Write the structure tokens for this entry.
Amino acid sequence: MELPRPIFQSFYDKVVKHIQIASEEVSQDSIMRAAKEKKYLAVKDGEKDGITVSGDGTWRKRGFFSLYGIVTLIGYKVGKIVDYTVQSKYCKACEYWKKHADSEKYAEWLEAHKLERNVNHEGSSGKMEIDSAVEMFKRSEKLHKVRYAKYIGDGDAKTFKGIIDSKPYKKFNVVKKECVDHVQKRMGTRLRNLNKNNKGLAGKGKLTGKLIDELSIYYGLAIRRNSDSVEKMKNEIWASIFHKLSTDDEPQHDRCPPGEDSWYSWQQAKATNSLDQYTHKPALSDEVFEAIKPIYEDLSSEDLLTRCTGGYTQNNNECFNSTVWALAPKTMTSGKTVPDMATNIAVSIYNDGFSTIMSILEVMGMKIRPNSYNFCLEVDAKRIEKAENSLSEAVKEARIMSRSTRKNKMDENFNLEGQLYGAGIAD
């Protein structure tokens, strides 16, 4: 009863709008500096046609029904956002006034609302990524005086096709590059689907979850280790599968790199003259090999591996997406202003660190005191320390071991219990 009355909605809206304008100003300045930095690195690396960017979209809700989506382009190597858009197909004010379309005030309101309308996307939510990418490619020369020569995509949407069809640079064709991580995921997904649709392949000694993970990792490593040569990629991809087929009586390691430094243990043993002490692990069955062979043939095609040259990834985009939704959780509902504001702030933090919060406060006319300054520096220092720690070999090995242990446990349970849950399993 005695609590003070909360602020009026109108005043709250003014404050939020003020933050949105200030954060947008700082974020736009940030992407301009990021683009200049990327252009400098591109010239230094001999990229004459333009710069390489990775693109990805993220949505407020899972599935294809989200009202809001965010799409970013990140300069490769520099690892900073050079452009972004926030897409919306919903406006609360428009929804309200639709019910009063016959009133005298509607026409007057509509004219005044045109500049403030929150809807900037027509069509499905999935199309947001395509339309945004096309828009950003078309404005790159005007915004940054540069072309986006290579586009790193994940293959989850027809974004690249949309870019090509729009012809943003007239006579110049943008080159598609694959995200190696997503290509590796394709191998895992297809092997799991094969296992799911062919019950005879599942079970101990066959196509287990652990084996699928191993084959996927070997496939990804073959691409990353040989990102400068399609021929070497293909050779090592097949070397990994023939390595699994090898037995003591019939070793098949001709494709494996020789020498003591080889990552194939058999070749190491051969180089050190200790083959008499070497014992192969249980080999992959011929049944499993014949089943997975078409998948390997498809995912080692020259066309796909050519797009994998360079070893590009979209890790930066995925990291940024999590930064946005940490500021504006997907569990909370809001209008477009909140995703706008969260994206502006996230772009600034992602590109230049948490200290950019002080820049936003300065634009808003606020004075920066020592406590605020020290807090921002402390947050940045902790973030860097955490990132460096996660990259240490010990932490990496612990993560791999943890995943492997979970997979083994799942396989053991499946072999013991069989499939107990699934669509239509009780019929």
Observations:
- The radius of gyration is 27 Å.
- The mean pLDDT is 85.
- The first strand starts at residue 51 and ends at 59.
